[in-house]
């Protein structure tokens, strides 16, 4: 009698002989199928490598600055994902290139404006100094020229100081305090700081603001903005004129209104009043065209909005809103 191991061995041999016999008869089917499969695989691999080389070439054109390169649409999974990501990258690079071009043009324009703004007072300083060097000047003449020299130097100082503040905003280094600000105290501080200028110009600043009106923000920077707005109103208000400040608070925002009874704003100037270095018609020679731009920047950085329009009864009206939530 055969043992179990012998039975298993004979079974394996029998199965192998049958399989060998079947393969020997089906070789004409198996061999062509294998060749066909390898051919299809080789063709697919060649096509895939070709498309990858095309993507490499397109990336090279992008690296050379050609952001108009359009990546082809691929149906395959990995290449489709790669194409989609590269397409997003090219769009972003193109946007950055456009923004850099605009920033460069803005910088060139800003430098030209700064040079022009500084040139006028510095020229005045040189002329006044040449007059002061004359020996036959009377004391009164020297005193008069010294006053003009002081005004010109104050103009330069104001321009440089404001430009430095704007440059801090552009560099992103300004950090605002986030604390309760009393609008009444804010108005008191602005009045104290501008009392002499208002008196010399013979313009009256009035306000009646409740003690509980407040907003969350930065006291010092908001004072800077409000002073610039009041100064603009003062420059466009004749002697004997008046500037009024009002404020109110509701659950959505705190509103501050500054209104004068001056000449108002030219219609064509209204859309550009908060642009840097913009000087509308009727602006006095002392204006540098950046005070309102700085004020608008300060307000916007504190989740606020600022608008200007001509009041119904004449004069300009500035409306500032500090929102308690996103507007």
Description:
- With 327 residues, the chain is an alpha+beta fold.
- The protein has a domain at 179-323: Heat Shock Protein 90 (2-Layer Sandwich).
- 60% of the residues lie in helices and 13% in strands.
- It is built from six helices and seven strands, in the order αααβαββαββαββ.
- The chain has helices spanning 4-63, 77-132, 139-171, 183-201, 219-235, 291-300, and strands at residues 179-182, 204-207, 214-217, 242-249, 253-260, 304-310, 316-323.
- It has a five-stranded mixed sheet with strand order 2-4-5-7-6, covered by helices on one side.
- The longest helix is centred in the N-terminal third of the chain and has 60 residues, at 4-63.
- The model has no long low-confidence stretch (mean pLDDT 78).
- Residues 113-326 form the Histidine kinase domain.
- It catalyses: ATP + protein L-histidine = ADP + protein N-phospho-L-histidine.
- GO terms for molecular function: kinase activity.
- This is histidine kinase.
- The chain crosses the membrane at residues 12-40.
How is the topology of this model organized?
Elements: H1 4-63, H2 77-132, H3 139-171, E1 179-182, H4 183-201, E2 204-207, E3 214-217, H5 219-235, E4 242-249, E5 253-260, H6 291-300, E6 304-310, E7 316-323
Parallel strand pairs: 2-4
Antiparallel strand pairs: 1-3, 4-5, 5-7, 6-7
Helix pairs in contact: 1-2, 2-3, 4-5, 5-6
């Amino acid at each position: 009698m055969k043992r179990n191991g012998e039975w298993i061995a004979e079974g394996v041999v029998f199965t192998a002989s049958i399989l060998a016999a079947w393969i020997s008869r089906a070789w004409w089917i198996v061999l062509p199928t294998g060749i066909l499969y390898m051919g299809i695989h080789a063709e697919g691999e060649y096509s895939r490598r070709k498309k990858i080389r095309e993507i490499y070439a397109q990336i090279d054109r992008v690296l050379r600055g050609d952001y108009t390169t359009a990546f082809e649409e691929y149906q395959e999974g990995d290449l489709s994902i790669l194409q989609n990501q590269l397409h997003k990258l090219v769009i972003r690079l193109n946007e950055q290139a456009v923004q850099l071009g605009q920033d460069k043009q803005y910088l060139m324009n800003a430098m030209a404006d700064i040079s022009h703004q500084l040139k006028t007072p510095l020229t005045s300083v040189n002329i006044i100094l040449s007059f002061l060097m004359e020996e036959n000047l009377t004391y009164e003449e020297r005193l008069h020229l010294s006053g003009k020299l002081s005004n010109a130097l104050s103009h330069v100082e104001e321009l440089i100081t404001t430009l430095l503040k704007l440059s801090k905003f552009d560099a992103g280094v300004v950090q605002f305090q986030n604390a309760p600000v009393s609008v009444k105290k804010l108005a008191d501080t602005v009045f104290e700081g501008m009392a002499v200028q208002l008196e010399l110009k013979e313009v009256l600043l009035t306000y009646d603001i409740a003690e509980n009106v407040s907003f969350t923000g930065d006291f010092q920077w908001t004072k800077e903005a409000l002073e610039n707005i009041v100064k603009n109103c003062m420059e466009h208000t004749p002697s004997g004129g008046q500037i009024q400040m009002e404020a109110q608070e509701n659950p959505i925002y705190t509103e501050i209104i500054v209104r004068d009874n001056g000449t108002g704003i030219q219609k064509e100037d209204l859309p550009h009043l908060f642009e840097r270095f913009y000087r509308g018609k009727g602006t006095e020679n002392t204006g540098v065209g950046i005070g309102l731009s700085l004020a608008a920047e300060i307000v916007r950085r504190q989740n606020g909005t600022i608008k200007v329009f001509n009041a119904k009864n004449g004069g300009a009206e500035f409306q500032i809103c500090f929102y308690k939530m996103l507007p």
